[in-house]
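Note to self: keep these together.
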Amino acid sequence: MPNFEEKREKSTTTEKKLKFCSKSKSCGACQLANLSYTEQLNHKTNITIKLISKFCHVEPVIGAKKPTGYRNKAQAVFFKDKRNNIVSGIYRSSTGTAVAVENCRLQTDETNEIFKTLCSLFKSFKIKPFDKRTKSGYLRSVTIREAVTTGEIMVIISAITPDFPAKKTFCTALVGKHPNIKSVIFTQNKNTERLFQGTKEKVLYGKPYITDYLCGLEFHISPLSFYQINHDQTEVLYNKAIELAKLSKEETILDAYCGIGTIGLAASKYVKSVIGFEINGDAVKSAIENAKTNKITNAYFYKASDSEFFSFVHDENISFSAVFLDPPRAGCNRDFLQTLAHTVKPEKIVYISCNPETQSRDLKILTANGYKCITAQPVDMFPYTNHIENIVLLKKL
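Structure:
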């Protein structure tokens, strides 16, 4: 296997000898912390080859120029240590426990500093973390979202109680130390099973969203918006997917599982029109708003299930020359893929997957129903973890 990042990774030997993070084993978030970045890329290329090469040629994985400090979203829980100080940490859903982590290597320096500030402020404001054993306290978690291009930051505080005490003085103290914080949101979360999912959002400070730019487009990120965690590699991923599709101004394309419309809107300037669908109504509203914000008039988004959307396409007699397919980790169901192949019948399918295992299963169905895989291009969206993002171009036989 060739060394794909040899020029960039001149310090590989030194990197391998140094311990990536003292908490990597106990935390478990960085499964590949024992490998140099070059070794990680080779490892991920090999995994993709193993799963996808039976369908087509697999290109070497595209590595990240910045393999650390790339997360624009970070989540932490808070608890008391043996000295009764409030500390932040990474929650392990597999064990239901948390590991104190002061400087996560995958998070930005600003995020790590904000978590430290929050620990200090929670203690001084006597805000007690929730303890599952004693059922005491009320603070559940904090999520920090960052907009890479604008520097804007959102802090989302989740607690069991319906209100947050001393919100004005607390936010003044927090923003005073971190002026890039443009939004502080409070959500109530009484659900003991879902740690980071709150309801009844309240703006404690600033705006209800932060603004970022991706592929030259403006996006508003709200507390629950899905937005790719690695901004720079997302641009690499989307640009490569659009490049592989070889789009033209005569084409109408389908953005399946469109989310907030990021890839469909990025592709809109290359085609006649974009139509996207998504079962999540809030995401569809965001996609429509994002189109308006960017003055894009040839993109249309609909809230619909697979079957509802295909009925709509049939009734309106809409045809698609290309489909961008970006499903959840579970992949697509067989009925969807068969309907796509036999009813929609696009000339090209660009299948983007965050799980090459389910992608391999789905490619088997598509290739059995009239499509041929042309090439595969993995992209390393999450350095130091096991996750692989992979693009496969298919064409109709």
